[in-house]
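Open question from group meeting: does this chain pack into something compact, or does most of it stay loose? Before anyone orders reagents, we agreed to write out a predicted structure and look at it together. Recording both the input and the output here so the notebook holds the full record.
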Amino acid sequence: MNSFELLESNVRSYSRVFGDVFRTAKNSMMFTEEGKCFLDFFAGAGALNYGHNPDFIKGKLLEYIGSDAVVHGLDMYTTAKRTFIETFNELILAPKGLDYKLMFCGPTGTNAVEAALKLARKAKKRTGIFSFSGGFHGMSYGSLAATGNLYNRGGAGAPLNNVTFMPYPYGFNESFDTIGYMENVLTDANSGIEKPAAVILETVQAEGGVIVAPVEWLKRLSALCKAHDILLIVDDIQVGCGRTGSFFSFERAGIQPDLVVLSKSISGYGLPMSLLLLKPELDVWQPGEHNGTFRGNQLAFVGATAALEFRISSNLEEAVKEKEAWVSDFLQKEIVPLHPAITVRGLGLIWGIDLGGLEGGEQAAKFVASRCYDRGLIIERSGRNDTVVKLMPALTIDFELLEQGCAIVKEALAAYFEQTGQSAHKEATLEPV
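Structure tokens returned:
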């Protein structure tokens, strides 16, 4: 038994799937201490949109550390924080016409979700929250209450209250008027459900299986919240910071949420950081009402500033759109025809190959992910029963490596069908967004 198995808690998860000991990483590649190299289609679960150790950001961090600048500052004023605030406003908020104040939370996404829920309840003086089936918002108590996965919820050890789950437009509910249902719940005096303080959602459910909410649905949801004086919280922790192309995932719908939660790739380098954007009129906090020792990660501020500058100087948004078009075309032409039960979904550079319709879909997805790993590709599964193979490479990945990784995925699928004798072709179809 190695030291990890002997001394580390059983709660570890990714190491059970990716069993090598990794030592170095660069851009879209990871290297083990034994010298094996892996192509990364996992990107730190969305924390590495700019890849591993990107030179431009690393240089800024090394320069900052070398100057003996402040590394730990709680929520004190620092030059690093001021530079990030001004850069974020200049490059992101102002050009998009967004008026938000910035709240720096504890360094994980779930802490920013907790802050959003607390603030919504404080501002509206209501305790309830509407969340959506399939949603994932974190593993601390409040955010877990808004998370749909029963396995995750089971770890709470106590009742998870004050959240009502609404149907997300997917699967059985895809043809169901979910917004109409919510309208009825809110206007029916006998619905048994009280008006909530806020509605929280991911516009693309990443852990839920890469489920893309339709634009019209998002517009109707935003209008519903406005009509009923309910705050709209968008959790952009995994699919924000350019993952869907635009910096925020909700931009495609032309809506402006009341609160936006960012984490994962906001620091640009995989450094812990979370950020809550809130409309100015919602800033009803008293000093210190939501605090934390590490709510001022100075190195993350430096990395985040550099990432924003790199995003503009490299024209990253357009590059993502080009790669999105290529991946969509590849999946439609090379993956969907492999079997009539395969469906694919995605946006930007987050895509899911859903094998849930296959006989033994969970085992199929597990086989594909495992074979990809054996072939040198790190890729994860998500969705109901982990039946969705999720493609989430760095936004900066070279086209050659993107093509190489997708070819490995295709080979793994073909190997599964050959082994099980399930292979059957069909005309390519892509789920509409």
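Observations to bring back to the group:
The longest helix spans residues 399-420.
The mean pLDDT is 95.
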